[in-house]
Amino acid sequence: MNTGLGWQIIRVAYLQARRRYGYSSFLPLVALLRPLVDLTLVYWIFGRLLRIPVSEYLVYLVCGLLPWIFLSRSITAATSTYIIDRRSILNIGTPPLLLPLAAATLELGKFLIGFSVMLLVLLITSRPPTALYWLLPVALIPLIVSAYALSVAASYFAVLRRGLSHLLPFFFFACFWFTPVMYHWSLLPGWAQPIVRYNPLTLLVSGPQVILHGRSIPSLELLVGSYVVALIALVTALALHRKLQHELPARL
User: Fold this and answer.
1) Around 132, how many Cα atoms within 13 Å sit in the side-chain half-sphere?
2) Would you list the domain boundaries of the chain?
3) Spans of the chain, pLDDT less than 70
4) I need a surface site. Which of 48, 58, 208, 236 has the fewest CB within 10 A?
5) Over the stretch 111-131, which tens digit does the pLDDT of each residue have?
6) C-alpha 15: how far from its chain's center?
7) End-to-end alpha carbon distance in the chain
8) Could you tell me which residues come within 8 angstroms of residue 146 by beta carbon, excluding any fewer than 6 positions away?
9) What is the SS3 assignment for the chain?
């Protein structure tokens, strides 16, 4: 990606944020409000009421929920980009990749702000920095690559199947229960553990949990699995883009 395209993506992401959240000087706080509400709700239900038997449950939950929100909302937001901004493609000739990549960039910015705040709180309260923190980029790279790639793929699929943008939130709601964000997979019956443990979404969001909550190095199995998922997502997105980029104006 050249520097010019990178700045274009950031600019469009900023415009999407303005359109979504309004022209407020407190835009970063407004953008973080919904994840904070989600986190509070899930914590009180599963941490306080149901008392999921996971030590330092709030840390475990935050380390899994923030990556999950970033991944799911990047893909969901991208499904409507071509439909909402169809005029910019048809009349102005905006590069097709620009819109879903900008949607993912907006969600990435929100994720990085929230993740940085979480790290700061951990450092101030009870968790001094360790050498393991240097492994966070290794765990986050496949998550970020997958979010961008699947956002591109979803944006093209949404043009082919116009109802996708309405169905995708229900899909992620169902997948949420099969991804160990608010529970640990070891709490499940033996027959269900492999299903949840090797769920592709689990492979993508579990790395930060292992490093920050478990204070350990992610297994080679987890790291290789997450990078394989990211590679498959990237290849799929590139294949769809090459096949459909020239057909997109006609389909809009």
Assistant:
1) 18
2) 3-251
3) 1-3, 21-32, 89-93, 126-129, 250, 252
4) 48
5) 998 888 888 877 777 666 677
6) 20
7) 26
8) 71, 204, 229, 230, 233, 234
9) CCHHHHHHHHHHHHHHHHHHHCCCCCHHHHHHHHHHHHHHHHHHHHHHHCCCCCCCHHHHHHHHHHHHHHHHHHHHHHCCHHHHCHHHHHHHCCCCCHHHHHHHHHHHHHHHHHHHHHHHHHHHCCCCCCHHHHHHHHHHHHHHHHHHHHHHHHHHHHHHCCCHHHHHHHHHHHHHHCCCCCCCHHHCCCCCHHHHHCCHHHHHHHHHHHHHHCCCCCCHHHHHHHHHHHHHHHHHHHHHHHHHCCCHHHHC
Side chain identity at 7, as an amino acid letter?
W
- Count Cβ atoms below 10 Å from residue 238 Cβ, excluding itself: 13
User: Residue 197 has what pLDDT?
Assistant: 92
